[in-house]
Hints:
Bound molecules: 1,6-di-O-phosphono-beta-D-fructofuranose
Oligomer: single chain
CATH class of the largest domain: Alpha Beta
Radius of gyration: 19 Å
Strand content: 15-25%
Number of strands: 17
Largest sheet: 8 strands, mixed
CATH superfamily of the largest domain: Fructose-1,6-Bisphosphatase, subunit A, domain 1
Distance between the termini: 51 Å
Order of helices and strands: HHEEHEEEEEEEEEHEHEEHEEEH
Number of helices: 7
Amino acid sequence: MTLLADWLRNQTDDETLASVFIAMADAGAEIAAVLRQAPIAGQTGLAGATNVQGEAQKALDVISNDIVLNHLRPNPHVSILISEELDEAVEVSSQGQFIVATDPLDGSSNLDVNVTVGTIFSILPADGGLLQKGSAQLGAGYVAYGPATSMVLRLVGQTAVFTLGSDGGWTLILGAASVPEASGEYAINTARERFWDSATKGYVTENVAGETGAAGKRYNMRWVGSMVADIHRILMRGGIFLYPLDSETVSKGGRLRLLYEANPMAWLVEGAGGKSTTGRERILDVMPVDIHQRVPVILGSAEEVARVEAWYRKAG
Ligand code: FBP
């Protein structure tokens, strides 16, 4: 049985970097414990505040952010925390070498109905500054709070999957996740069809046509509406996730956030052999101009992402 600390020792000689992963894993274990009891503790309602994107914060968004911060604060190697829940980046330690960017509780609109939510994080070198391409990441991960609590991590090697045990420890379940190159499953919010661009419409129309269409095979659609749940399914059995630019999100640059949603997920999916794109370029090559920047997100099985890219090339 391989535990998290053993796996980290095999991945890096840098104990300071490993300590940041351990801090995030500990935060994830604590958030999992809070979520398990949240309906009893009456913590699934609104907190009454709004976050930087003007969205209502759930009590658990705030609590999860505090838990992450509490686990990072004692770590002298963390310089700055960027969080979906914080307007500004906060200094954690003046001497730290790493920046952590996080969405402490993604998909929180699913909490009231007990659907999987998650914590997403990205680790960057502090000397690169606040705004760095995703390709500069030193590592990334997410914790999925589902029937089991899963954690998916990658430094620069392969993407690995852990499960949280009843003792609070993380056990390696899969050392090298592999997103199948081909898949018959796609995930997109089809209620947004009227806003879609021609590339998205072209790709989805082909899928819906199934065996009778140009793709020549039958597709199934799955959309949890919780990015961590959708990406975890894709990491484990393939498929493609799309939150493309559309006529409603174009003014904001997209729906999902680059630094703490798109980049870490692209890092993990690519580490498992999948692909990521905005439609026009690799997500990890996008140069951010703002810490809360949004971006179109298309990632998953390589063949499917390539088909979407071809539609974008055709659209010009
Ligand atoms: P938040 O960052 O506001 O939680 O939104 C992210 C998210 O919930 C993703 O987890 C999910 O993929 C997406 O929004 C769902 O969006 P929509 O409700 O438009 O389908």
